[in-house]
Amino acid sequence: MQSIVLDVKGMSCGHCVRAIEGAVGGLDGVEKVAVALEEGKVEVEFSPEKLSVEKIKEAIDEEGYDVE
């Protein structure tokens, strides 16, 4: 497993948390998603053999949030 922490802009409420957790958590290879709303951080544990960091960023971007 690999763990990354992404800076995500535009999150403001529980709906944002659920949207990101649902989008990223639904990707094949994701083990855990933890959103820290106030810090603007998303921690993802995933299998790099199954999933790239770029695909994780794309899933967040498709929900309407900016990944730094």
From TrEMBL:
PROSITE patterns: HMA_1, HMA_2. Residues 2-68 form the HMA domain. One of its GO terms (cellular component) is cytoplasm. Pfam families: HMA (PF00403). It comes from the Bacteria. InterPro entries: CopZ (IPR049740), Cu-bd (IPR000428), Heavy-metal-associated_CS (IPR017969), HMA_Cu_ion-bd (IPR006122), HMA_dom (IPR006121), HMA_dom_sf (IPR036163). One of its GO terms (biological process) is copper ion transport. One of its GO terms (molecular function) is copper ion binding. Keywords: Chaperone, Copper, Cytoplasm, Metal-binding. It is found in: Cytoplasm. This is Copper chaperone CopZ. It comes from Bacillus oleivorans.
